[in-house]
Amino acid sequence: MNATPHWLDPEQKAAWDSFIRMQETLIGRLSRRLQADSRMSAADFVVLAGLTESEGGRMRFLDLTKRVEWEKSRMSHQIGRMAKRGLVTREECPDDGRGAYIVVTPEGYRAIEEAAPLHVEHVRRLFVEAITQEELDTLGRISARVLAHMERQPD
């Protein structure tokens, strides 16, 4: 027997719809600019950003997958495409025969170093400049709170 759905009230629905539309529009515009500016996909960028921000430009495959919240198959295909273009390499994990490290290559570093300054300017123009510092601080606290809440919830 299904319980009656607990629908969002009008204010909750309006806030949720506005948040989703803002997020999808922002990500879409940033992705298109990234592609136009650097010929790099948003997926390439998120993987390279994660790797270059990690110790030694390397992460275990599963840690990288968890960091970007992707399925293993999606990450595997993405890494395969990026490896063919020389942006990353896969190295066997010496202490775990089934595990692997994903390592950014010099070409990958060059690509992210060229793309990041333009990307951050678009983030600033489209997002940061649209709100006050106080609103940005509030959004940061709200985002951290929602993320912490989700960590406590079953997937």
TrEMBL record:
One Pfam family per UniProt: MarR
InterPro entries per record: HTH_MarR-typ, MarR/SlyA-like, WH-like_DNA-bd_sf, WH_DNA-bd_sf
Ranges for domain HTH marR-type: 1-148
Name this protein carries in UniProt: Winged helix-turn-helix transcriptional regulator
